[in-house]
Write a structure and sequence with these properties.
The chain contains 5 helices and no strands. With about 110 residues, it is an all-alpha fold. The longest helix is centred in the first third of the chain and has 18 residues.
Length: about 110
């Protein structure tokens, strides 16, 4: 992702490092277990609360909130879902148990009994 940017635009190495760092920090921020909705900026920038819908277990959230930075792309494609500020969104894998120990976390998650 960064190499084409550096080839297309005159970008210094320090600027490229800053952009890469910002992208990594943003990726961690939107996946944080936080209810941060960014207030009015939440319509312009993806917040953790907005992005959590993408990982929701609720059927009404399937195929929603794909944007990683700007919700406008979800608006354009009709996939935007702005949850209420106090809406609790359960996330995870519907067919797996939570890991009980480090080994299960690193190797594989137990399949749920049906």
């Amino acid at each position: 992702m960064y190499l084409p940017l550096a080839l297309l635009v005159d970008v210094k190495v320090t600027e490229l490092v800053a952009i890469a760092l910002l992208v990594q920090v943003w990726s961690q921020l939107i996946h944080a277990d936080a209810v941060a909705a960014f207030g009015p900026l939440g319509k312009i920038l993806v917040s953790p609360h907005y992005h959590r819908v993408q990982h929701s277990l609720d059927q009404r959230h399937i195929h929603r909130n794909f944007a990683g930075y700007f919700p406008i792309f979800d608006w354009i494609f009709g996939t935007a879902n702005f949850p209420a500020r106090d809406e609790a969104i359960r996330t995870g894998l519907s067919d797996r148990h939570e890991p009980r120990n480090l080994q299960e976390y690193l190797i594989a998650l137990r399949v749920k009994d049906t």
